[in-house]
Description:
Layout (H helix, E strand, L loop, with lengths): L2 E8 L3 H9 L1 H8 L3 E4 L6 E9 L2 E14 L3 E10 L6 E13 L2 E9 L5 H25 L2
Antiparallel strand pairs: 1-7, 2-3, 3-4, 4-5, 5-6, 6-7
Helix pairs in contact: 1-2
Amino acid sequence: MKKVETVIHIKCDPEDVIQAFTDGIHLNGWWGVERALVEKRPGGVFALAWEISDKGIKYISTGVIRDYLPAYLIHIEKMMYFTPDRQFLGPMELIVHASPEEEGALVTITQHGYQDGEDWDWYYEAVQNAWPQAAITLKEYLEK
């Protein structure tokens, strides 16, 4: 099974990491999300949108929260990725785990569920490059 996993140490409380993935203001601050709907509970909606214009929305990620433990974990299942340039991609899973450490949190971001095909290969390569950079951006945002 193909997966992308990024691990980074961030000097903050683990719950700050989870909040950065579930609060619209924080999602905008570090990830550039323009609109978010996150129901912070198991079974809740997780929906993010980027590049919104009068012509529509360029990128959308949605899913259902499987596990939500605000102190250290969010697990999103049935995750879908939408862009007008590609087929709908999904379902996948995204897991963000923040383990407490002496000086902060060890953050592991795992995304899996990639399938086969040209659009899937494109997306997998994009995510392999994007998550490490996004993790650095998250670290810089949370350590301010």
